[in-house]
Every structure is written in C-alpha cells, then in structure tokens.
Amino acid sequence: MGQGVWAISYWELSLRIVLSVAAGGLVGLEREWSNRAAGFRTHILVCVGATAIMLLSIYGFSQFADELNVRMDPARLAAQVISGIGFLGAGAIMRNGFTISGLTTAASLWVVAAIGLCVGAGFYFVSLLTTFFVLFCLFLLNRWEKKFFTVKRKMKMEMKIGCRAGRVNEVVKLIEDNGIVIVDMAVNKEEHLFGSDKRESCVKIHLTVKVSSASILVHFVDQLAVHPDVQSFQQSAPNSG
C-alpha cells in the first residue's frame, strides 16, 4: 500500500474504522435516546464516512507519491467533508411554529465528522478527547441546562381573544398577575366571515414572555382555559436541540 509516510497496514486501517464506529455510535446513542431524527446509525455513518475519506485522502493515492510532478495534499478531500456535512446538518434543523429544533443534532453531526477525520488521520488523542467532551455536553450539560435555564428562557405565546373594549388589557393584567414578565407584544385585529353577511372580529396577541417556573405557567394556562374571552392559545417550548 505504498512506501514510507504514505503507507499504512490493514490492521491500522481496521483499527481506525472500528474506532470511528465506536466514537460515532457513542454520540449517536445520546441522540437516539433523546428521540432525534439523526440518531445512532446516522452518526456512525457520518463518522465512518469521514474516516474513510480521510484515509483515502492520505493513503489512497500513495502509488503516485514518487511521481515527479505530483504533490500530495492530504487535507484536500478532508476540507470537502467539512463543507459537505453542512447539508446534512441543515436537514436535521426543523421549524415548527415558534420552535426551532435540531440545532444540537446538526452540531453533533458536524463534530462527529470532525472526529472521523481525526481518527482517519491517526490523531487518536484528539479524537478520543473530543468524543469525551461531546458526550459530556450532550449527557450532563443537557440535563443541567434543562434544570437551571429552561424556565428562564424567553417563550412565545399566541392567543386569540374576542374583540371587545378592554379585553386586551384584562388578558395582559392576568398575565402580569401570574408573575409572567412580558418582553414583547404585538396585537393584530382579524375578521372572519361566516355565511354571506355575518362577520366576527377577534384580536390576535403575539407575546414574548419570561416565566420563572413551570408551575406558574401551568397555573396560567389553567386560567386561560376557562377564560370566557380567550378563543385559542398557543405556547411554544424553549428551543431544543
């Protein structure tokens, strides 16, 4: 398989592929456990693919290493992996109403590709250390973040109420009485046509709020459910990965 620095044994090739399967699988297990679109198999495939491309880039053209007019550039194919993985990561990001999800999964795919490149280049220490810290972020920091920051993040609320004088003020007072801080608010008037001449007006309120605890939010939603002027209500969870 070539000579000198461009040579690698089949045992070393196998070791790097197996290590990339293990590293990608460990990261993928967490994503699978969190029920994400890109899970166990996807992360393994990305990591193994990046490793294979790195191996190809370094050792796949060793027969041309001694040619006079040939310059070997092991980073050339690897650079295309970094840019190409962005398309796969973009597919993992989804928007549903106010909520954007998949950012963490897209980032994990990107870093798994980087791990695969490190394994393919024989950069074992960095690949193992990176895998450890990725797992630390996904498993431990994820739970710590949910515990301390989720209820303090900004949330989006959208509600539709009857179009009567003073109703918006009543709903805003109800929000503030529950200890919910309004960061931003937009009000739009809408009209719906029923039949040939019957029109019903309503007001749609878009809110950005901060809630100090989940129990406050639950209590507030219970009050909205029985409020005579609230026709509909939608609340988005904080952005998740």
From TrEMBL:
Topology class, membrane: Multi-pass membrane protein
Family: Belongs to the MgtC/SapB family.
Major localization listed first in the record, in broad terms: membrane
Gene Ontology CC terms, in alphabetical order: plasma membrane
Residues annotated as domain MgtC/SapB/SrpB/YhiD N-terminal: 17-146
Subcellular location as annotated: Cell membrane
Keywords recorded for this protein, A-Z: Cell membrane, Membrane, Transmembrane, Transmembrane helix
TM segment ranges: 13-30, 42-62, 74-93, 123-144
Protein name listed in UniProt: Putative Mg2+ transporter-C (MgtC) family protein
Organism this protein belongs to: Cohnella phaseoli
InterPro entries assigned: MgtC/SapB/SrpB/YhiD_fam, MgtC_SapB_SrpB_YhiD_N
Top-level taxonomic group: Bacteria
